[in-house]
Design goal:
heterodimer; A: 619 residues; alpha/beta; Pyruvate-ferredoxin Oxidoreductase, domain 3; Rossmann fold; B: three-stranded antiparallel β-sheet
Chain lengths: 619, 336
């Protein structure tokens, strides 16, 4: 049962709503958005979030490039993207309004802090005249609130607060207003204050006061004509929490370490947007996690190779430029056939590119960015929550097949958050390993397991199994250096075959919505939410001839890939690059000539652009 | 590190691989010294790991019947750091050369020393790139003619010890490539030292840089040209044991015993354990005499010890034992 907080006022039921909070990078927009999405998730809504912030930590106040935003999509239906069109924009300053107005659908609502629309701020936002007065916003429902003054007023009786603290808490006034509009309780956020400001009761009092002031202001305000309800979504029963993609990735490795009985070692060098995985794992020394912040990307991966040689579950985390630096070492890991997971949280490239923006342009680098022929497993997560599953899967495949695995995520799913149905480690798939516990007769380091071709893993400290590995070509059995021409060709083939055989251990690909038909939409990795939503919309509209196949396994591809592709007349590969996965499909399936839909703007796909494109194809 | 009652001989540490260095190379001396030193260390064979980079010296692990990895150029120190942090019971050795450690691997070299991870590094310094057939290295002298400096090298060299101590090395030793007895003892002492050790071996390259250290290491001159320091002993050298070092202002000075009333009591007494590296740096820089032996050996907390105690502390204050405890903690909600 939905308990309405403000029974009696006129309220409209909505299926889903998109709210975007924007302001200066110091305005606390990330916190405000996170609170709104957490509260909504706890209420039972499905949620998807997307932070959008500048790479400058504190860009000049009021400037256009210093705008920080946080978008939340909540729904009583399945929500798998943060949404492209904004139903409610909360703009804390003119620069925020200017840079985000494009996303608001005409007729929808904008809340502005009128106190910030000063001449100075308007100049900084490059407005010639005040948009609140010159008709710019005449197609929108604008709620003008003197938020800064009202915040000050709310805190008049609280002694001992400095001006900075007072000004900074105006984001909570905005949050209070939004809570009222969508029938959200303030309880979760007040609990949050109690925890966050445990050592400073004054801040608990102040923030609570401002939050409540915003809430009651909306309730009594006639400017807000109605409020909206969004019923809880239908979700599989279980215990949930809202999780960010990077956190989910980190936790997937924690689970894999526990399940495999190995200690987790992370060698890493800070890089946006991957650093949060390092931050998260660094917290968990209580599980025996070893995090080693290395001197550079190369030491990040090579220390992990050392840890793997010594018997740890070893991982390294990075983003595009870092993956480039790790290339040579990744070749070593492949050559010595040790388990290792490399996480590439993709960002806009090439070179330094767009560090805080999202893209899928590292795919070919992950596949081929090494000298010589050096195949490794490449998999990709597709939602914030399933970063957990694919981190676990990456560790499992790497240990069971004795090979490096690249796990690809991207800035969009890594920083986005969504409800995660918590999995208990006891219910997760077993993880085997290839460790040789004691000396066996005729043991050789390159003895292989027949079905997987994984070599055995003898760990220093084990008597009688002393052996040497290295980057020089190895003899196929002993692992000693070998320059024999036939052996090199044999080893090249074995290394390729070993990765190919992984096909026997991964799920087949399925086409959703239609098993055969006119158009198959193909995607991979972090674009799942956008593509799924678009195809589902068409399917709901009655199109029965469009299917959707989304790939999490890139190398090797699922065994039945060719067969599924054949069942459709047209294939359109959609990706946030110029067509890298399309290339991979073409290499693998001769004669295949897929259509492409590409976007390289540092931004995720929007729903409307996809729907429009697919409709054209179906016409 | 666990010690063993089992007695090994040097043969136990020789692998079945044919050694492929040039005849007459000092690398053979180093290999033999290591195979002789290991039985004296009391470590178990299965606990010994050799990690190397790329270069002539880096073939070393293949010739040792222990665990080993021949890594990639310059990265041995980083690989070894991971090995040691994964299993602190292991005796970890880095084998590297002057190019491997101070050119392509310079970053890892300084950072491993700074962190003080309990591992040992043997730097084979022959002032040349051997395996790539004779280019100048970061320790080559100015004016040195090599394949890549046919008219003479214009890049001033690093001194390995100076760089290492500048990077906070707690242990630095230098030994000539033709003194196996001293070398063996230094390897044993390095293993006993708790922290990162750097042993610079002055190694002759018979093909590309023959005689590069002869002025200090030739049998006919070495007693007069080298001062082999020992902790707690006065700094005496010379065939006749009549030369010594004193401190004159901020400079080291060579004096002759018996001249100007100088006696042994006036000489500097080597204190390898001193935390302040000033005098150690002066000894490292000295060209006459060239100082060999353990120049610096300052006992300090290792990275592993810091990490271990922090981990114990975090564990003691945490309610999380299993990952489920974390996953189900904090803000969760139920959907029925």
């Amino acid at each position: 049962m939905i308990k309405l907080e403000n029974e009696g006022t006129e309220s409209t039921a909505l299926e889903a709503v998109v709210v975007r909070f924007v302001g200066d990078s110091g305005d606390g927009m990330q916190l405000t958005g996170t609170q709104f999405s957490d509260t909504s998730a706890m209420f039972g809504n499905d949620v998807a979030t997307f932070p959008n912030y500048p790479s400058e930590i504190r860009a000049p106040q009021g400037s256009l490039y210093g705008v920080s935003g946080f978008q939340v999509h909540i729904g009583s239906i399945e929500v798998s993207t943060p949404g492209d069109n904004v139903d409610l924009l909360v703009a804390m300053n003119p620069a925020g309004l200017k840079t985000n107005l494009y996303a608001v659908k005409p007729g929808h609502t904008i809340i502005v802090d009128t106190d910030s629309f000063t001449k100075k701020n308007l100049d900084k936002a490059e407005y010639d005249s005040n948009p609140l007065e010159d008709g710019t916003l005449e197609n929108y429902r604008v709620i003008e609130v003197a938020m800064s003054s009202l915040t000050k007023e709310a805190l008049r009786d609280v002694q001992g607060l400095d001006n900075k603290t007072i000004t900074r808490s105006k984001n909570m006034f905005a949050l209070g207003m939004v809570y009222w509009m969508y029938h959200r309780s303030t309880e979760h956020t007040i609990d949050f204050f109690k925890k966050k400001f445990k050592s400073n009761p004054l801040l608990i009092e102040a923030n609570t006061k401002v939050l409540n002031a915003g809430y009651y202001f909306s309730e009594t305000l006639e400017l807000i004509p109605n409020s909206y309800t969004i019923a809880p979504a239908q979700m599989p029963p279980g215990t949930y929490r809202v999780i960010m993609g990077n956190t989910a990735t980190a936790w997937g490795f924690l689970a894999a370490a526990e399940k495999s009985g190995l200690e987790l070692f992370l060698g890493s060098y800070p890089i946006t947007p991957a650093s949060d995985i390092l931050h998260e794992l660094a917290k968990h020394k209580h599980f025996g996690v070893k995090t080693f912040q290395a001197e550079d990307e190369i030491a990040g991966i090579t220390s992990a190779i050392g840890a793997s040689f010594a018997g740890d579950l070893a991982i390294t985390t990075t983003s595009g430029p870092g993956l480039a630096l790790k290339g040579e070492a990744l070749g070593l890991a492949m050559m010595v056939e040790l388990p290792l997971v490399v996480v590439d949280v993709q960002r806009g490239g090439p070179s330094t590119g767009l560090p805080t923006k999202t893209e899928q342009s590292d795919l070919l680098q992950a596949m081929y960015g090494r000298n010589g022929e050096s195949p490794i497993i490449v998999i990709a997560a597709s939602t914030p929550a399933n970063c957990f599953d694919f981190a676990y899967e990456a560790a499992k495949l790497s240990l069971e097949h004795m090979t490096p695995v690249i796990l690809m995520t991207d800035g969009y799913i890594a920083n986005g958050s969504a409800p995660w149905k918590i999995q208990s480690v006891s219910e997760m798939a077993e993880i085997k390993n290839n460790i040789v516990k004691q000396a066996e007769e005729n043991w050789q380091p390159y003895n292989r397991d027949e079905p997987t071709l994984a070599r055995s893993w003898a760990i220093p400290g084990t008597p009688g199994l002393e052996h040497r590995v290295g980057g020089l070509e190895k003899d196929g059995t002993t692992g000693n250096v070998s320059y024999v021409p036939e052996n090199h060709e044999y080893m090249t083939k074995i290394r390729a075959e070993k990765i190919k055989r992984v096909q026997n251990y991964i799920p087949e690909i399925t086409a959703e919505f239609a098993e055969e038909g006119d158009v198959l939409v193909v995607g991979w990795g972090g674009t799942y939410g956008a593509l799924h939503t678009a195809v589902k919309q068409l399917s709901d509209e009655g199109y029965s001839n469009i299917g959707f196949a989304h790939f999490n396994y890139i190398n090797p591809l699922p065994k039945n890939t060719g067969e599924v592709l054949k069942r459709f007349k047209k294939i359109i590969v959609c990706e946030l690059n110029s067509g890298q996965f399309a290339k991979i499909l073409k290499i693998n399936f001769s004669g295949l000539d897929p259509l492409q839909y590409n976007k390289v703007q540092g931004l995720p796909f929007g729903n409307d652009e996809l729907v429009q494109k697919f409709k054209q194809l179906l016409a | 590190m666990e010690t063993t009652a089992q007695k090994y001989t040097f043969k136990d540490f020789a692998s079945d691989q044919e050694v492929r260095w040039c005849p007459g190379c000092d690398d053979y001396v180093i290999l033999r010294a290591m195979q002789k030193a290991l039985p004296e260390m009391g470590v178990k064979k299965e606990d010994v790991v050799f990690i190397s980079g790329i270069g002539c010296s880096s073939r070393f692990p293949y010739y040792m019947d222990t665990y080993g990895m021949h890594g990639i150029h310059g990265r041995a120190a980083a690989i070894a750091s991971g090995v040691k942090l994964a299993n602190t019971d292991l005796s970890v050795w880095v084998i590297t050369g002057d190019g491997d450690s101070m050119a392509i691997g310079g970053n890892h070299f300084i950072h491993v020393l700074r962190r003080n991870i309990d591992l040992n590094m043997i730097l084979f310094n022959n002032k040349i790139y051997g395996l790539t057939k004779g280019q100048f290295s970061p320790t080559s002298s100015v004016g040195q003619k090599t394949k890549s400096s046919p008219h003479g090298n214009t890049q001033p060299p690093f001194s390995a010890g100076e760089l290492a101590i500048g990077a906070q090395a707690r242990f630095f030793a230098r030994v000539a490539g033709n003194t196996p007895k001293e070398m063996t003892q230094i390897f044993v002492d390095a293993e006993k030292f708790n922290g990162t050790t750097l042993i610079e071996v002055l190694q002759n390259c018979v093909i590309f840089n023959d005689g590069c250290f002869t002025q200090f290491t030739d049998k006919t001159v070495r007693e007069d040209k080298q001062l082999h320091v020992e902790h707690g002993k006065p700094m005496i050298f010379g065939k006749n044991k009549d030369k010594g070092l004193v401190l004159n202002g901020l400079k080291l000075e060579v004096v002759t015993l018996g001249e100007n009333g100088i006696t042994e009591d006036d000489l500097l007494v080597h204190d390898a354990h001193e935390q302040d590296p000033t005098l150690h740096q002066m000894l490292v820089r000295l060209q006459y005499p060239l100082v060999t032996g353990i120049i610096r050996s300052f006992d300090d907390v290792t990275l592993e010890e810091r990490e271990d105690s922090l981990t114990e502390q975090v564990k003691a204050n945490s309610n999380f034992v299993k990952t489920d405890d974390l996953f189900f903690s904090g803000e969760t909600y139920k959907v029925d």
